[in-house]
Design a protein that fits this description.
mainly alpha, about 0% strand
């Protein structure tokens, strides 16, 4: 698994964890300060992972479409 695939897999896992925590918050009438903080922390982690993934993609000129995407 290359770094991009690993990041995408990790993003999926973080997204699923965010969904689980939001469901817990919803069931508890949005009262848990610690769960709200956990969602905030997970969203920050997710944002950082997306930025890293996008930077990796911008460094990769090949998208497997058969075209040359190099910018001279």
């Amino acid at each position: 698994m290359n770094e991009q695939e690993e990041l995408m897999d990790n993003l999926l896992n973080v997204d699923l964890e965010i969904i689980d925590v939001v469901r817990e918050l919803h069931q508890g009438n949005w009262d848990s300060v610690s769960l709200k903080q956990q969602v905030g922390d997970l969203l920050k982690i997710r944002d950082e992972m997306v930025q890293k993934l996008m930077s990796l993609k911008s460094d990769d000129d090949s998208c497997d479409c058969g075209h040359d995407h190099t910018h001279e």
